[in-house]
Structure to design on (221 residues):
């Protein structure tokens, strides 16, 4: 995805100030794998894009310069009569690469583009010199902040629940019937206020002073 983004963001300019005299037509015989621009012989040929020069020399009997703006994408201008740059150097878009020759017998220059070694139509990268890279950004999915979106959906999702504590009002309120906490407190109230009961539990040891009855100390049985 990143390679697609980088290649789509690359914008080319015409290597010469002249009309297109032959378009990209790989299906024709014998096949035309680029675009021919018409210009006068000896006219300056400019770099269509900024990048590193990966080739500058003769191939198949013609002078050619290849510039690589991003990995996997190469732009070549061919049928030059002269070359003024060297392989391994970097060039800027619009910098002079050489002089126009005679592609296919007529004055001009040949422009071709390759992605991972396969020829593609140079026109797909033309015409965006004065635009932004919004068309490339449309290829990528919109960014999402996963932790932030989770917090927005449920801000208390990762919080530990508080332990249940009955409010003072509910604890003091006596329900007339039922099995809830209120009813349980209601039964305990009369037992604490009445006389001795078999079911009454003594206080735990050490919670208070020994009980007295008529001034005499009462010993536990």
């Amino acid at each position: 995805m990143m390679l697609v983004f980088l290649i789509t963001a690359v914008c080319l300019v015409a290597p010469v100030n002249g009309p297109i005299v032959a378009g990209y037509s790989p299906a024709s015989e014998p096949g035309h794998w680029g675009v021919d621009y018409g210009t006068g012989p000896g006219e300056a040929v400019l770099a269509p894009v900024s990048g590193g020069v990966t080739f500058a020399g003769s191939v198949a009997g013609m002078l050619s310069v290849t510039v690589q703006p991003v990995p996997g994408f190469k732009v070549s201008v061919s049928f030059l009569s002269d070359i003024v740059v060297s392989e391994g150097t970097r060039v800027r878009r619009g910098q002079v690469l050489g002089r126009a020759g005679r592609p296919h017998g007529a004055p001009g220059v040949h422009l071709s583009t390759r992605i991972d070694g396969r020829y593609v139509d140079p026109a797909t990268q033309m015409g965006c010199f004065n635009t932004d890279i919004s068309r490339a950004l449309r290829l990528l999915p919109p960014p999402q902040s996963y932790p932030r979106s989770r917090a927005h959906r449920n801000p208390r999702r990762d919080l530990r629940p508080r332990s249940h504590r009955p409010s003072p009002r509910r604890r003091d309120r006596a329900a007339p019937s039922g099995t809830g906490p209120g009813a349980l407190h209601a039964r305990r109230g009369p037992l604490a206020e009445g006389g001795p009961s078999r079911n009454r539990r003594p206080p735990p040891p050490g919670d208070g002073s020994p009980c007295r009855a008529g001034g005499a100390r009462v010993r536990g049985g």
